Amino acid sequence: MLQQSTISPGAARKPSMDFLRLREEALEVVRQLAGEVWTDHNLHDPGITILEQICYALTDLGYRLNFSVPELLADALDDGHLHLGWRPGLAPDRPSTLPGMPGLEDVLPAAPTIHSDWQGALLDIPDVRAASIGLVEASSPKLYFHEKRNELVVRNEPGVLLRQLMLFGLHKIEVAAHEGRFRAAREAIHQKFYAQRPAGEDLHELVALQPAAISLVGEIDLHRGMNPEDVVAEIFVRVDQYMSPQVRYKSRANLLDEGWQMDAILDGPLLEGGVLLQEDLQQMVPKKALHLSRIIEQVFAVTGVAEVRSLRLRGEQSQVSIDDGVNYWVPMLKAGMVPTLDPETNALLVRIDGAPVSLDRDKVRMRYQARRTQLQARQPASPAMALPRNRNIAAYQSIQHQFPDNYGINARGLPKDATTQRQAQAHQLKTWLLFFEQILANYFAKAGSLGQIFQMAEDAQSPAPQADLGDVPEVQASFQPLHAQVEALDDAAALKSLQRFERLLAHLLARFGQEVQQSYQTPQTEANEFKALQQRVDKMLGIYHDLPQISQGRGQGIDLRPSEAAPLPVGGLKLRIADLLGLRAADPDLRNGISLATATNAVDFILLEHILLRPLPQEYEQENMLFRFRNGKIDRIVRQRSLTQPYTYRLKCYATGTSVLRKQSILDEKVKDVAHDRVEIVFTIGQVKHDFDVVAADDESFTIIVPAEFATHGGNPQGGVWNLLKSDEEKLYVDPWSLHVTCIFPAHDLRFVQLQQRLMIEQAVRDEIPVHLATNILWLGKTEMQSLCYHYHEWRRYMAQYLQSRVEGSPAEERFVQLRHHRNQLMRFLFVGETEPVRDLELRLLPATGVATRIGASGELIVELNGAAKKDLHFELPVTE
What we know:
- This protein has 881 residues and is of the alpha+beta class.
- Helix content is 32%, strand content 18%.
- It has 23 helices and 29 strands.
- Helix 1 packs across helix 2, helix 7 packs across helix 12 and helix 16 packs antiparallel against helix 18.
- The radius of gyration is 39 Å and the shape is flat.
- The termini are far apart.
């Protein structure tokens, strides 16, 4: 019997593809409009025939609109990219093409954030056998906060109770590499960690776990007819998987077959080997203790095992603690060890029907290794998505081809002997139908030109292209299309076209959950509307172009490894903030002979992660103090003469951080028994340091009394930094490094001079930075910004070399001195304080600073500055006897 293919009579998937529904809705409209004038709506009526032809054409259009988005855009794609034909006034550094819409692998995965993500990323490294990552529980070496001196110190003074600091955001990685592969694993771990490092976090320590070989000792009975080598090899595999599980990847295809959704499969980092499920990762954490009962369960689970008469574990005492006491059932591994099974058969007695059987040791090992390799096999990568095929969606076939012959308007036309009146009637109907044909053809043309609309060709003046009706039979006799020359866009048309482009980009970004906020450069007049819209479109283009990176790396910090790339990598977090604000994401780059002024002008803002400025291991060798905090910065000082004491002056200091001072207004020096706060001030001019009593304080300033000689010596001091010396109040800073970031903007830039613009930028930055990080905003003048850019670039350069030396295991002392100097200057900008005196440096030349120290003829210490004025280095070293 012949099998006939038929169309299912069930309901259509979409209303636009349901012919009967469209026909019924159209008839309802006809009944309302025609009333009593036209009541014959039967099939033989010509009007109903025309209506049905149009409904049929609409179902064809609805079918084509259900193609995939890549196929709908295929008319403008070239090698998977959507080329921009028009870039009216957009930034010249933007690429000339928009990438094709990112796929699921580009936007659904995310860089590692939680520890299970990191564990999967570490296990994905081929040289890694087992790995775990956790937060550092205690700072090592220890740090202390001296409240009375407002200092961070490295040693607890005898008889003084100091507060110990706990730094957060530091990670410790423990890794067991395959034999002889730890060096390669260490390099790969550093590369992966710093390429995906979350902002505000860092790697504190990488520990190599050593294998602790453990073998089985016992007696096992097997069922009759079993191959003893196969059974013992499977026992070893199961026990090994309990002790140190192999990485077990799953394929996406299998997970999809099991009912997983793609967003759940691609949740977390994208791994090269396949998919690692959370429940499997929990079993792959290196064990610190073993449970013999669980091992016996694994042995009983092997097919062919009849009975376990006895079973024990054996290992070296230096690696694992096993004795006849409590550790018999729960052996404990020594610190820095990870258990591995030694597939040794000498201590394992195997019986079948009560009779001992001899085991071929080589066969057992060979089958054991084959099974372990099979379990660790990586899943093949998903094939690349093929380029979409062009469905030729715009191709329109005239509805007149489907009319019965008696209408005389299809391709066969009228008989040759048709009268002139009959020909005129057919021509009249054909011409009348052109009105509906043009509307239908335009819709098909618009659906088939979606890619061209998104492409924004320069001559695309209308979002609804006019279709050619050349497919209508003998249309030339009824309709001649006009071919008007396309004229240049006037101002109004250019604005309207750019607005359409902005709506299209907003649609694309909305598909990936991206919403572009109103630009901080809000137009003040209608004349600025077009320019403001250009800036907004350019910002949206930047977001769309960087979409994969800012989607996967939205919380990433900078990659600190050495890089020859131009521009320097800045991390996903800074890139996302820059794109959303329409700013440049570039960091200062002084390579290739670029001047400091040029490099500073190319920087719109700097994102500094405080945890990267924490003390280095070598600094714990210096004498006690690491940093002295200042409560605030003095921006301006006003000098006032005392009315009661002619030789005494008051200095009114306009400063930040005055909230920690007692609010008082007692300015009469004759008043006795008044409690005064005491502050230490380091004045900008000459770096002069003195202590003073505060006789008045308010929300923005405090007043001190100084002798006339001090107030007039060397000119009126203009600023400085200050610190509260004696107070029981909470200090402004205690832990300046943990989970803090600072965004630094140039206050002199004309884009940021208005308060409303600054507030909008600050709010946008705080909205984008992860909520667990404390966000600080700093505005610097031109000179300060140049100094910051210089020290930031040099700090980043020496930090890259310092980290590379740690990876290679080479000495880092020379890099440490240079690195610390530039880091100290950054700390002064951020924390308002002092990093000197430095007492652990030898008397020698510091290449990075241009500072040399030597002993003079009289034994005095001489500090020479060689062109280092802009580096702002200050030493207070004791005289060497």
